Sequence to fold (158 residues):
Amino acid sequence: MSTSRPARPHEERRDRAHPDPAPLERAHPEPGLGLADVDRLAATTTEAGVRVDVRRAGEPRPLPSEIDVSAYRIIQEAVTNVVRHAGTASCRVSVDYRDDEVRIEVLDDGRGGDAGNGYGLIGMRERVGVLHGTFAAGPRPEGGFRVEARLPVPARVR
Fold:
């Protein structure tokens, strides 16, 4: 008598066209993560099937925790959206430390789509708004999708 059973969805092997976003959701439950943890997020995402190229510009410096955590969470949500919706094998995360702001950009060359009002985009927009920054998200003319956040850095920490 055979005891085989059909594979459960979480047991099925995922391919690059359909990576599993679940590892990203479990990867970093701690609330105090910041930009120093982006490389770990990139490694976890790569293990889930989407390579993340992280680029930094400017001189990294200590930031107020609300900016540091928000910047990380924006990147985390944008990368999770790439895994879930873009249908691509890679994306690029850029963190640019400028004198008066930190600029975050996540680009992919996937399906694009519209900027709709998904909860992830709304949450990113709200995080940026609380910090008096600017936020943009939408399809790129050359294909794919772009998320950009600019978070002002208070003069006392520049």
Notes: DSSP finds four helices and five strands in the chain. The helical segments are 22-27, 38-48, 65-86, 119-130. The two ends are 71 Å apart (CA to CA).
